[in-house]
Structure formats: structure tokens, C-alpha cells
Amino acid sequence: MTAQNEPAEKRPDHESPAADGTPANGADEQQDLLSALRAELEAAQAKAAEHYDQLLRIRADAENIRRRAQEDVSKAHKFGIESFAESLVPVKDSLEAALAQQDQTAQLLREGVEATLKQLVSAFERNRLMEIAPAAGDKFDPHQHQAISSVPSDQPANTVVQTLQKGYLIVDRVLRPALVVVSAGQQA
Q: pLDDT digits over 134-164, tens only?
């Protein structure tokens, strides 16, 4: 049996029927429940709106960070060699000055070239451009050396016999490997 079908005396007081057949206190309880649910809904909607606003701000911040990072990378590509170029300008000036001199002796020309070479070496050092110049007998390093040929030699196999052209590193990255002749070992 349901509460509607129970005799009135068995129903709890809060369920005694009103004139329209609904419980007397039920209408007030429903209104209170409805008001509470509306309040919860409004609070949830306000919180959702706040979170949506935060999401939009975070997206805008992320987009700004991405755009600034792209600009920084672009500037780094454009101006990355600026420091190196500034170091090379005096070297070019020295070479032009040497060529502009009409009456030079071989000795003066040599001194000028040596001074210019020192400027160039200094520019390389400031910009962390280092030589790869293996000496005879150094172990062959395929990461920094390029073997042009292999020759029989008194040296152990896989060692440098001769450096044909220096290589260069920028920090830890090979710009150009050193060209070398490598020992094939002793021939029997």
C-alpha cells in the first residue's frame, strides 16, 4: 500500500492531505527545496562562469607567451650572428688598410697579416669558435674528423697521420670536421 491509500490516521502528520490533495507542509518543503536547488544552480553557474573566464585568460596568456617565444626565435635567427659580425668588422678594416698601403716591404706586410690573424683568432675565441687540429698520432674521432684516405703507417691503426685541413667547433657542435689522413696500421 502507498501513503495515498493508507487511512488518514496511519499517515504521519506532515503528510495529512490539504484540500487539493497535496500534503499540507509538502508545498512549503517543495518551495524550500526548489529555492535551495535554484541557489545551488546559480552558485554553480557563477563558478562555471568564473572558471570559463579563467580559462579564457589562461588561453590568452598562453597565446601571448607562444607569440613572444616565436618573436624571440625569429630575432635570434636574424641577429644571432651580430656579436660575431661585430668581432669580424675590425679584421676586415685591417685587411683593407693593408691593401691601401702602396709602399710596403714584405716584412711590414707580414707583420700586418700576423696582427690581423691575431684579431681574427680573438674574434673566434670571443664567439667560442674553436679549431679542431689533431696532431699526428691522435686517435681518429669520426665525430670531429673526416678521413680522406687511409695509408699504411708505423702508427697504430685509426690514428691521425696528417691533418690536411683544420676543422672548427662552435661550442660543442662541429661546424666543419678536420680533414685527415688516417693510419691503416703496420703492413706485414
A: 999 999 999 999 999 999 999 999 999 999 9
Instruction: Show the domain range for 137.
Output: 129-187
Q: Are 185 and 153 in contact (CB under 8 A)?
A: yes
Whole-angstrom distance, CA of residue 64 vs CA of residue 66: 5
Looking at residue 158, which CATH number applies to its domain? 2.30.22.10
Rounded to the nearest 10 degrees, the angle between the axes of helix 82-100 and helix 106-126 is: 180
> Distance between CA 23 and CA 104 in Å, rounded?
120
Is 21 inside any structural domain? Answer: no
| pTM of the entire predicted model | 0.57
pLDDT in tens, 91-141: 999 999 888 888 888 898 899 899 999 999 999 999 899 999 999 999 999
Pick from 159, 146, 167, 163: nearest CA to 185: 159
Do the Cβ atoms of 117 and 88 come closer than 8 Å?
A: no
